[in-house]
Design a protein that fits this description.
By secondary structure, this protein is of the alpha/beta class. The protein has a nine-stranded mixed β-sheet with strand order 1-2-6-5-4-3-7-8-9, sandwiched between helices. It has a three-stranded antiparallel β-sheet with strand order 10-12-11. β3, α8 and β4 form a beta-alpha-beta unit. 46% of the residues lie in helices and 13% in strands. It has 17 helices and twelve strands. It folds into three domains: 82 residues, DNA polymerase, domain 1 (Orthogonal Bundle), CATH 1.10.150.20; 174 residues, Rossmann fold; 60 residues, Arc Repressor Mutant, subunit A. α8 runs parallel beside α9 and α11 crosses α12. The N terminus is likely disordered.
Length: 373
Amino acid sequence: MCIFKNNFLMNEELKYQIALTLVPSIGVVTAKKLIEHFGDAQTIFSANKKDLRDAGIASDAIESIKTFDDFSKVDEEILFIKKYKIQTFFITQKDYPQRLLNCYDPPVLLYYKGNSNLNDEKIVSIIGTRNNTPYGKKTAEEIVEKLSVQNILIVSGLAYGIDTIAHKAALKNNLQTIGVLANGLKTIYPSENKKLAEEMLAQGGLLSEFSHDTKPDRYNFPRRNRIVAGMADATIVVETSRKGGSMITAEIANSYGREIFAVPGRIGDEKSNGCNYLIQSNKAQIFTDTEQFLYAMNWNNSKKKPKQQTMIFADLSLNEQKVVDVLRTNEALHIDTLKASCGLSSGELASAMLTLELAGIIVSLPGKLYQLA
């Protein structure tokens, strides 16, 4: 009897959690505000209009909550969850991904099929263009292979191109890998990745904030991208154009205060001009090798700094010398402090730092800090 009662209570709780995600006019920010005010989803639906107004939400959202009656859709979702043994993570649960909780717009409810720990110690997102070059493929594969020594969980979006390459490389190197979907768990998009997705269930999993029968509509992809960015400690952009979807993910990761790394490409190469822009504008640290990445993330157990290809300081330009002189007298400086101390424009500083970082004279650290190598 006790077990039956517990199951009933769990179903009731889940019922209102799902319902909250289906209410029109209720986005994740409003839902988060409601949960913070009322404590749980069921209380939100039982609240009167005055209590809902006191929570500080708009009148159309209040009306949507009070008139919501599509519980047949909720029941369908619960049946799907039970049939396919889907795990759900509500925002107030202790096993909800903690990195997402630190985002300003976390998903209220997540659907997950797999065996990975969503709060693993080290998580990296690897993203890039759907139309990768051989250089991009080789680079992504090498990055994942070298990350395998650290047992890092790899997250990506299960899309064509770099996403698929990253997932496959993770499986090949015995790393856990999670694909974040822009649709529900009922279908795999693109369909060509169905076999890959099935393999990932045994060595990672599939994650979505969308109900099971949601189609991969265009406006779902930015929402997917924010989870890819928010799930990880760092995002590595392998290849992307200036207008690529990976640029959106990088911008979101930056807004979350996460570390972003970009693989540099040839000047004028359309598939790399997004990465080059991220580096040039100081929105991403340059990714030169995995050892340097691990050092920048403080994940390298060795206290010895990675070997750098140094250049003679006499060869430095005036602006480059200013950066070196400022860093010589400081342990590590934030990019904004460095800019003010050097008296350089953003463009001048970006150009100088790119040269110095490529030469191995300076290194980037978490939090947009820089120091001499």
